[in-house]
Each structure stands twice: as C-alpha cells, then as structure tokens.
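Continuing from the previous page of notes. For each protein in this section, the sequence appears first, followed by its structure tokens. Read the first protein now.
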Amino acid sequence: MSDATPAGRRTSVLVVGAGYAGLTTALFLAWRGIRVTLVERHPDTSVQPKAFGIVHRSMELLRQIPGLAERIAAANVLDFAAEATITIGRDLRDENQFELLVGGDDVMKELASMTPAAFGALPQSKIESVLRATAEENGAELLFSHRLESFEQDAEQVRARVRDLGSGEEFAIEADYLVAADGWQAPVREQLGIGTHGLGELWRCRTILFNADLDELLAGRKALLTYMQNEHFSGLYSYLENAIEVFGVSGAHLLGVNYYPERGDRDEDFTDERCVELIRVATATPDLEVEITDQSTFVIAHRVADEMRRGRVFLAGDAAHVMPQTGGLGGATALQDGHDLAWRLAAVLHGHAGPALLDGYAAERQEIGESTADRQLARLADRMAPHLQGKYPFPPEVPAQWEHLGYRVASAAVPGAERGPETLLEDPAKATAEPGSRAPHVFVDKDGTRISVLDLTGRGHVLFVGSPGSGWLAAAKEAARTLDVPLPAYSLGGDLTDDTGSMLRRYRLEPGAAVLVRPDGYVAWRADEESADAAAEFGRALATVLARTAAG
C-alpha cells in the first residue's frame, strides 16, 4: 500500500473474521459504544455446525449483555448433562464401542454451584448467527462478502484496503487498531511475519453433511460424537437432530473423514460418489440411500503463535492458537480472546486506561491459549491418535472444572498476582478472590433481589468492600474522580446483604478488606485491611490496574 492511497472510511477498531473471536470482539466493542467494523470474506456466518456448545465460562461473559444468555438458552437443543457422551469404535454398528462421558450430572452440578451461567447447548453455526444479530443490534458494522487485501500500520493508526467481493470495489479503511480473527490460515499473522510453535498441522478433516434414513440404527442413541477408526478411514460422526430448524442446514447427519495433504489427498477427492461409499462404511449399511447436502474442510492442528500482538494489530482465536477439537475448548478460548480484547480496547479508546493496558492481552491470553492447546492435544492422543504419545510434553491432567473456571491471569496490571505454570490453574471451588483469580460466584441480595456477585461486573472495574463505613469507599471515589473513570462500589452490609456469609468467606471481605474486579470477572487488586492512607494507596493501585498515572 502506498502513501498515495485515497482517503477512505474511518473506524476505531477493524476486525477481520466472523468466527467466535471476531464476532465477540465486535459485539462487546459495540455494546461499549466503540465504533467497530468487521470484514468477512464469506457471505454469511457458517452453515456447518462445527463445534458444539458454549461452556460455562464463556456464557458468564455473554450474559453480561442483557438478554443474550436468554436468547441462547431458548434455542438449546439438548440436555447436556444427560446426553453428553462420546463413543469410540469401528463404525456405528460396532458392538464393542467404548463410551466416554464428557458431561454427566456430577460435573454439571458442580459447575452449576460455581457459576450463575448455564451451558449453551447449541452448535457453533447457530451461536454465530445469534452473536451476529446481537452485534448488529448494538451498532457494529459487519461487512460480509468483504476481504482484507492488505494493511500497514504506524505509531498512530492502521490503514487497510478492503475489497467488496460482490461489486469488486476496493476501498480504504483507517482504524486505531486491527484485530486479526481470520482463522487457522491466519493471513494477517503471515503478513506480520509472526512465527508459530507446536506440532503444527496433523491432518485435515472433510466434513460431509448428508440425509439418510438411520432411524433404526440410531434408536436410543445419546452420544454427541462417535470417533471411528477402521481400515477405510478415521474420523467422526454426529447426528444433527432437526437439522434445518436447529442448525439452519439441510443434512441431518455429519461424517468427518480425516485426510493428509502430504500424502497427496485433496478436497477434490471427495466426490459425492466417494462420500456415499464412506458413509456406508461408517454406518455399516452397504446399500444405504444417501443424499449429500454440503461439504467443508477444517484443519486438525496444534499451532500457537509466538506473539499475539504486533504494534496495533492483535491476533485472536485460531489465528493465535489452533488446537485439536478434543475437549471442546477451542471455541471457548476464541470467544474469551474476543471478550478480553474488547474490554481493554474500549477502556483505552474511552480514555479510561493507558495504552499499556493492551500489553496484558498477550501476557495473559498467550499462557491460557497455549495451555488449552496442549491439553486438547493430550486428549487427541488418548482418543484418536495414540501415535502422538511421547511426541510432546503433555501437561498433567486436571479436573474439567479447573479448565472451565480455574484459569488464573498475571500481568503488570494485576499487582500481586502470582506468575508461573504451577499457578496458572486452580480449583475454582476454593478460589478466594486473590489477584489474578476469577472472582467467585456467590449469591447476595441487592435492593431486595437475589443476584450473583458476578452480575455486578461487566462494563468496567467494580470495587467490593467489607463494610459501609470503609475508608476504601471514599478512596475509590477520589481516585475515580482524579482519573476520570467510572468505578461502581458496593459494600457488604450496605448495598449487599450476605445472609449466608458466602461472600464474606469466599472474598475474605472483612470490614477493612477491599477487592477490585475487572470487566472479565478477574480480581485485579485486593487489600486485606484498610491502609492509614487509603486514598493514596488506592489511587496508586487503580492507576496500576488501568496502566495510568494519577495525571492520566
């Protein structure tokens, strides 16, 4: 791009890609009043079901937007606790299939005690359509059938050229920041020259949507997925009940077939005739009548970007960390990347935080993304690819609840947070509002209504103190005035009634204590007793948390 590029459009944040990471970034920026433009080369969100479900931590974040969690819950397609099983076998008629429980009443009940959010039992395609609609309702500009052609950046802004794939018109967009959520092929990352590490691409999976009469074969079936290994192929099967109504696709069944480009395999090899043969093998029904309705390809890979930020450009989702699907946390990680970027960018663009706050995105999300990718790779080796055992240093196993709700963060803007692999995960049932921990979910009464403490977080930082007479309240008010930032504050025994003592215990909120919680629900700072000079101490703490000085 030359300096002679004609002047074009202006936005605060340009987002590339309309998957989980891109749509969530755009949604939460628009909800916070930030001008955001998203470009996506496809004409719409995906029609392929892709991943299934939104885990509790992601739903915690989505429910910050009024009505969004209810919108998702109204479209749930199954009882996850009762039906979340995976089987492993040769084909769907294999009498010796191994069954693996990934939901279950015990796990779901324990998760339900730790969060006010419920599991979102929807396919990714349906969730993306809900995120798109909600983002547009909040004012985000989403340009589908538009492709990023090139970009450059300097100390002041990003300048990009975008092509309208319908008209062929090319135009310029100037933005303060660019979020690259452009998928596993990651063209923005490639242009930036950011390297990656990990095992790389392992294989690809051709997903085939089809219709067939499998009522007798599937009678009583509860499994979400069946992994298959036989002499013809390895892959997976999923039943898409009420496909058109629920998933928005024509094709009640999905078969995924693994293939290897390095062996000469190509997408073009999957003719309708070959797909029918593979489906008959998978169902062990040689004369099955089959209608192929759609095909697509996704990559099975373990690849983590060496950097998640370069100047004014940020990587999110698969552009930053591609991971095997085993475990179901790839989409959650992408969605949480988007939420993290949105609150930080909004705070900086509104002038509430200093630009250094953005450094915390890479510092925190890099560790979480890499850990999640490694754990999903370990599950892949266990379930589908024993040949990967010993080829990578897999992390030790932890309970599912830890991975869903127990990740901790550490960066310069979280004073007092411990840093290191041994402190990256904790038992969320025992977390006590330490800096870097996710703030515990407990119920309290506010204005006569029982709510979760987490319902008071979301738009900005929030302060909780141990008594209505706490000196931290005056200190917070003065610091917020000096820094010109909104800072709601709530006192135990004043604004909040804690009849069960749960908040007192889990937050250790004695009369002199104070806990500052970020928009993403992580604890940014705490004090266990009131300082002799609370105003000065809290002013310094808030300035550190917002990457600012008292002068702004």
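Done with the first. The second protein uses the same format. Note its length before scrolling.
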Amino acid sequence: MFEDSMFDKKFILSFFLIWCSGLLFSQIEKENEIESVVIKSVKKYKNKKENPAYAIMQQVWKKKKSNGLLLHKDYKYKTYEKIDFRLDNIDSSFTKKKVFRGLDSIIFKYNDTSEIAGKAVLPLFITESISQTYGKNAPKKERKDLLAIRNSGLKNNQIVAKTIQNMYKDINIYDNTINYLNLGFTSPVSTDGFGVFDYNITDTIEINTVRSYEIRFTPKNPEALALKGRLYISMDKYNVMKVEMQTNKRININFVKNIATDLEFDNPDDSTFIPTRNETTLNLVLNDKDGAKSVIAKRVANYSEYEFDKGLEDSFLSKTYIPEDYLVEKDENYWLENRTEKLTEGEQNIYKMYDELENVPKYKRIIKLVEIGNTGYIHFGKWLDFGNIFQTWGYNDIEGLRLRAGARTYFGKNDMWRIQAYTAYGFRDEKWKFGGEAKYMFNKTNRFQIGGGYRQDVLQLGVQLTTDEGIMTRSFASSSVLNSGETTSMSSVKQYNFFTSIEPWKNFQIKLDATTQNIRSADSNLFNIDYYRQGVLRNDLNDTKLTTTLIFRPGIKFSTYGVDRYEMTALATNPSLILKYTKGVGGVFNSDFNYNKLQFYYYQPVILGNWGRLFANVEVGKNFDALPLALQNVLPANQSYGLVRGVFSLMNYYEFVADSYAVLFLEHHFNGKIFSQIPLIKKLKLREVAFFRSGVGSLRQESITMNAGNMNLSAPDKPYYEYGFGIENIGWGNFRLLRVDFNWRGNYLNHKTTANTDVRKFGIQFGFQMNF
C-alpha cells in the first residue's frame, strides 16, 4: 500500500466494516437543484470567441487575483462546520434483518421521513465544530484554531471521526483545479474551462440583491471526470456570486455515485466578495447498480465574523494551538448560542440515538470491529493494545516463515507517553527477535519529546536511502510474502537508539538521534559483508552515530496530537522536505569509523486537473568518507512482487552502492483520462499509470578496496533508468482494488553483483489499493 493512500484505506475500510456489520445499507436519489431547470437545448459554438459567455469569463479571470480575501493584508473569520451521515430508504423488511436484533428498538424509532419524498432516513453520524481562522497573504500563512467540537455516532473512534471530517476540503472556485477525494476536477472558473466545458448563458437573476448572469456549464466529454452545473456572475463586478455543481452520472470514482457542491458568496462592500456557505454532499455506494443501497454524507460550512487588516504578526500565525480536550467539549447551551445553522430533526435524533446505544453490547462489538480495522490494534482493558495485526506474518529466505506479535500502551488518542514492544520468530533460522521503545512528550504545542529503545532483529537494509532511525520501523522487504528473487541479503542488527525532537514552528520538526549498533550478515554463506579495517579482516561492524534531521511538511494535518499522531493525507498535495546530517563517531562504544553523511529528500504530489495526479520525489546524498558496505548508500531496490513507491522495481538488493548519489522517481496516475476515450474499454472503468525511475552515483576506490565480501560493489556512473506503465482500478462494481504494473529496465542489462545474480529486464508487480 502506498503511503499517500492511508486515508483512503482507513476510511474505505471503516465504511466497508460498518456496512458488513449491518449499519450501512440503502440508496438515495436526492433531486439536485441543478437538474430542476430543464434547458431545451444547449448551443455549441465552433469558436469560443463566438460564445457570449467567453467575454464574461474573461472578465472573471481578470478579477480572480484581486478578489475576496486577497484584497487584504490579513484576515480573520469564524467557521461553523456540520457533517452528517444518513442511511435512506429504510423499509419494514430492512428493519427486520437479523443483524439488527438487539438494536432495532433504539435505531429504528429515529427513522426520519421528513426530508426526502417521504422515504425513511436513518441518521447515523454527526459531528459539529467551530473554528477560528487567521491568515496573511504576503507571504501566505494561515492558522486555524479549534474552538469547539461535538461528535456522535463514531465518537469512540476519533480516528474515524477525523477521517470523515478530512474527506472534505474548502473549495476556492477561482483555483484552476478542484480537489475532491484527491481527484482533480477542472473548475468551471478555470482559464482552461472552455477546453473542458460547453458554456451557455441561460438567464439573469438576482443573488443577494446583486443582478447576475446565470451560466450553465456541461462537460464536453461525458465519460471524463468532470462537473456540470451553473455559475452566477455579478453583472457589474464580474465576481462569482453562487455556484451549483455536481459530477456527471458516468464518473469513474470508486464508492462514490455522486458529488454535489453549492457555494454562496457575499459582498460586504463594493470590492470584497467573500465565501459565506459551502454545502457538499457525497453519495457513497458499495456497488453501482441501479437501486443499490447507499449512504449520504453531507457537509455544511458557514463562514462569518470576517475582520480584515488587523495587523496579524508572523509569530502568531506560525504557532500551533492544540487545545486540551476539556476546552473544546461544550455543553448544549453553547451550541444553541453559537451554531449558525440549526439542526434538523433527524440530526438532533443522532445525538439521542447514540446516547441510548452507548451501553448496548452489540453496538460496542460493532465499534470494536471498526476500530481494529482502522488501527490494526486490539484493545484490552483500560490501557493495553495488541498488534499491529497487519504485521503478524511474513517470509524471507533467512527466517523462512516469520510470525510477529506486539503490544503498546494506549490510554487514549492524546497520550503523552507510550511504551511499545514486539517479538518475532523465524521458523527457518529458529531464532527469536525482539524490540521495544518508550517515549514521552512534554507538551502538545511544540511537541518536545524524548525516547529510546533497543532491538535485536534480522533486517533487509539498503531498501531506503533517507531512513528513519526509530527502533520500531521495519522495511517492507524484511517481511514481504511474495518475492521475485532470493531474499538472502539480510543483516543481523543489534541497535540502541535515543532521541529527542521538537517542533519550534508548525509542521517543522528538528530531531536528534544518538544510535549505537552492531551489524553482521544474517547468514555469511549467502550474504557476506566482510571488510578490511586497518588491514584486519572484520565480519561485523560497530557503529555509533549522531544524526540531526530537519523535517518540513507544510500543510500536513493530523487527527490527534498525542505522542503518536495519525496523519491525514486526504486531499493532500503537501510537499515533504527532509535534510539529514549524520556524524559517525569512531571509538565511542567501540565504533569503527569516523564519517560524515549529508542527505536531502523532496517529495511532492501534484494534481494536474483532469489529467490526474503526479507523484514526484528527488533525493540526493553524499558520504564524505570511505565506508564499508554496511554503512554505504545503497540505491533502493524491490525484489518483492508488491507495489512500493520510491524504489527501483528491477534492481536487485545491493546492486548499486554509492558514496554520492541522486535519484528521481516519477509516477503519474491519469485517472482513466486515456481509457475513457476508447470504446468498450471505457466500460471497464480501468485507470492508467505511467512511471519513470532513474538513479546515478559514484563510488570512490577506497570504498571498493575496503570490501571483502562476496559482492562486486559498483555505482551507476551513467544514469540507471527503468520505466513502465500500470493498470489500476481492476475489479468489479465499486470493488476495484487491484493494480498491476509492467516494468522495463532501460540499461545495465548485463550488470551482475555476483556470479549467480540474474538481472531482470522485465517484471510484473501487483498490489491492492483502496482508492476512490
């Protein structure tokens, strides 16, 4: 599973588990206002300049960089947000299902028939929040403080609740691309809009006392990921006053039948147009057949109490405000006074229903199942978790079948300290492995923490360049199940690690690690890392090092703020930058080498409109001293059949070693842009992926001479490269989880590290991706 898919995996898994537990069933066809007005004909213009709407949109484009909040040096406003999930079409046969026995007397007395054409609607989940946003335009900085939050339904699982909140993103209609669920849709106000939409002026209408054009937009290609709807543009200022838009009926999005958004704006003065309301509704389904059952997830955000040009300081905007739980848990009187949109009767019933369900054993079991599926841990008592169950078993040629069990302390989502440990056993080498770590955080604001641990384990080193020094980290290659070659190049590692870290600024972390370790071959007959030191042959290596790591991840959001955080990658196009300096300290704890290493890593996902999403990462590094293989920079390889981003799929472990290196990984997901143009194939809803990987490096002669193992060390002095394409979204209905990649090696086709090493010129890899 790719790291950026974590949000999709956890949310979809929660969705599926609740469904299987009997709580998510039914289907809705809510009539959207966009479809309520029938247009007898849509005129298509041969040239966009002939279209009267083009002249209007040209004026809108001129305004978009000098509009709304951008007119002011700084701003401040309050947001009230409400998200609710509802099940629809509840009938008598549905309520009598066996799975509801023991719950039906509570659940179904809250059926609501008031909203949708007399159909019964079952309230499921609601969350409300109030926050204060502060921002500055030059340079762009923003801070959002949570003032109050209220959850029901899944309130015992804050990760699920926060995941649901992060499904949605505030939309800037003036952006060229609108981000729904990490899928890029061309905005109807985009400067590229006339290449995607047909525009027609259909009426003039008054919006908030402002006379406005009504412009209908429809996608030129109904098979593409595109929106349809209406824009309302002020006739005097050419500002967007209102937007009604939804996806077309043929969208290729898993688990989603429809997305609809209504945006409203206001003009408090002659020049400022600001957003006042955003309503987005997702129609979630487990299959796309007519009449299938579904869930309606609606989010309403109201923006109010705007203030401008108050002289906000950069130091204030850079601080992170993390309130204690009791400060944001408000009583009913607070919500009656502060919510800007009243709750419907069905929404009020959600709170009532879950107050009654809290102590029902069957409901507790359902929530427990959801929690296990999301976290991978099974909670016992008040403070103990067992897991991670998803890391229980693996296989490699040294250990054979490997079984792993672990546990951690867990009192709550915002724990300030944690102890965790694991043990593992290999049935081939018949050895036990183990590790443990403890850490403590002093405060949530700057996240100052300390920790330390120890492990004795068999690891596949050399599959990651800029590594995490943590004791509990483990590479995919150490416990993969299916491999395309021998996994014998394993190392036996005994490691102590102590660290401290702090975040002096939001999403900027400084981490200091002190590590001492002993590294030797797990089986020297199969993989030998012997080396010469001062003319003496050595078969193990002692290493003591101090590492300083700077990590900057602007825009990253987290669901919890304890010593461990769950990262929200939903709707993320946020970059990651890492600068790491390592100082090897010879003589300390019998350390064998003094050395200096510098590394830089940059990762960037980019949404390219309806052309899909690009993932790019670049990494460079340098050893300033000659070092043996165990301490070298090894270009990362993947000999498993699984999909892993940021490694070379046709490179063998330890095939290329470098004192200095630079690598580039590009992977582009077209989201069906190409396949949707091909007859017959488009009905399969497949999506295409293209990728390119390259690496170059150098290795000094002293490092080569030092090696006494059974491998010929070399660096790719001419750029190594591989390329290929993949097909994703393979499956049936909305369960399209399989991806298959086809990889070709571009050069070094006869390169060998040992006499028995085979170079793979072509390879196939596959994996499961829970994506929308």
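What the second structure shows: The two ends are 14 Å apart (CA to CA). The longest strand covers residues 121-137. We return to this in next week's lecture.
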